[in-house]
Design brief:
alpha/beta; 8-stranded parallel barrel; 6-stranded mixed sheet; 16 strands; 17% strand; binds ligand TNX
Length: 463
């Protein structure tokens, strides 16, 4: 019997746990909301505000007669269930197996006290260069949840496509959503579909961070609405992979009415506090134009009740205390980054999931170098930007110029997503490459059961 708190997300986590147990042992475990009073043969999920763990931490105790998961918040309990999941046999991941006879599964007797190092444990999926369906994004969220990650940054607009319905500007998707890299058909999320993604993510304690990249990376918007262009002429759709050639017309007032509508509609669809305004790779504006634009957009984002996040170029502007700089250029000036009010670290040469593993990787780019699994694991976020004011955490971006299917996504993300999840969760002193690579290798049967197309990096002792 699984006794759970009546909180709906805890109930959901308990039902999922019961399902994993049924799959692995054939035993049906009832989920109740009663407090068991530590009855034997019970798995207890307890939200305990007095718990000494941090907000997202948990205690997991597996004893001879009782299993207890205890956390200060439902999020912490959710992470406890993910850890228990990993202690169950790998075949608990097979959805379509039904044992006729109950099969024993043995859990180790353990006490685990676990707390995350960083509050931002993210991944980014670029759905603009290649579009990914709602079902595919859900699968990506599942990969994050398995690794106790809690931010999904969606790159929703770029030169090649606009991927979210904006009711006041319907041509953004009617025209700007049609294509993608390689001129294959694109796509977009209706507001209802986007809301469904927000809920699906929230049920797994993942906050969606929506990004509309601006003022550059905007060809899809410029092609959809002539009036957004300085010369009133819409450019043709773009299906290549160059960057830096497009920019909104920063001197026209309509640009800011447009952005106010876009930020407003998207802010209304998200539950998290963030709006990502891009800001990278602008080659068409002067430094003064760029700074003034970022500061104006920051005010729009704040007026809609959100905190602005932007790529590291925005550090050149005057930023509000709540604004977040996302470090990406390996050679970005660290002095400017250190002044950022808050920082998320995505160094291209460590955290970019779209970099090739090595010279033999068919997918991916290599502008920031090649990133074997060890390079994605073996670094200390605290040492990256000397004097940084506040490091929120780490995010692993997956740009999709070369990535068109979920199988491609999985190949580049796994196993590096697991490595970066550990970089953002575990204290530096507890991390060791040899230990990690052995634990990583042990995931192979589970990942295979989950149908994940992971890269069997030759240096990992895969089981
Ligand atoms: C740089 S990272 C970009 C993206 C590309 C990516 C490819 C960043 C803020 N800008 O536009 O997709 O490199 O790795």
């Amino acid at each position: 019997m699984t006794a759970a708190s009546s909180d709906s997300s805890v109930q959901r986590a308990a039902r999922q746990l019961s399902e994993w147990i049924r799959r692995s042992t054939g035993i049906a475990v009832a989920v109740t909301t009663a407090s068991s009073g530590a009855q034997p043969s019970t798995i207890e999920l307890v939200v305990d505000a007095q718990s000494t763990t941090s907000a997202e931490g948990y205690d997991l105790t597996i004893g001879p007669r009782l299993v207890t998961l205890r956390a200060a918040t439902p999020a912490g309990l959710f992470y406890a269930t993910q850890t228990l999941r990993q202690l169950l046999p790998y075949w608990s991941e097979y959805e379509a197996v039904a044992f006729r006879q109950p099969r024993p599964a043995t859990l180790p007797s353990v006490h685990i006290r676990d707390n995350p190092r960083f509050e931002w444990r993210g991944a980014m999926l670029d759905v603009a260069r290649h579009f990914f369906s709602v079902e595919e994004v859900k699968r990506f969220i599942d990969l994050e949840a398995l690794h106790k990650m809690n931010r999904l940054h969606l790159h929703l607009a770029d030169d090649q496509g606009w991927r979210i319905e904006i009711r006041k500007w319907p041509d953004l998707t009617a025209k700007g959503g049609l294509t993608e890299v390689g001129a294959t058909p694109g796509g977009f999320y209706t507001q209802a579909q986007f809301a469904e993604l927000v809920s699906y993510a929230a049920e797994r304690f993942v906050t969606i961070v929506p990004e509309i990249d601006m003022p550059g990376h905007t060809n899809a918007a410029l092609a959809s609405y002539p009036e957004l262009n300085c010369n009133g002429q819409p450019p043709p759709p773009f299906t290549g992979i160059d960057v830096g050639f497009s920019a909104l017309c920063v001197d026209k007032e309509i640009t800011y009415r447009f952005l106010d509508d876009v930020v407003g509609e998207i802010a209304g669809l998200t539950r998290g506090p963030y709006f990502h305004a891009g800001g990278d790779e602008v080659r068409k504006l002067t430094a003064d134009q760029y700074r003034a634009f970022v500061e104006r957009v920051q005010a729009i984002v704040q007026a809609h009740g959100k905190e602005m996040i932007g790529w590291d170029e925005i550090a050149a502007a005057t930023l509000a205390p709540t604004s977040i700089v996302q470090h990406w250029r390996p050679n970005a000036a660290t002095a400017a980054l250190a002044r950022a009010p808050r920082l998320v670290l995505s160094p291209g040469n460590r955290a970019y999931l779209d970099m090739k593993y090595d010279g033999e990787t068919r997918l991916g780019l290599d502008w920031a170098g090649r990133i074997p699994v060890r390079a994605s694991y073996d670094w200390d976020p605290a040492a990256l930007v000397p004097g940084a004011r506040a490091i929120l955490g780490v995010e692993a971006p997956l740009w999709s110029e070369t990535v068109a299917t979920m199988r491609d996504v999985e190949f580049l993300a796994m196993p590096r997503l697991a490595a970066l999840a550990e970089v953002s969760w575990s204290p530096q002193a507890a991390r060791d490459w040899d230990d990690f690579s052995a634990r990583l290798g042990a995931q192979a049967p589970r990942w295979t059961a989950l149908g994940i197309n992971f890269y069997r990096a030759p240096e990992i002792p895969w089981k």
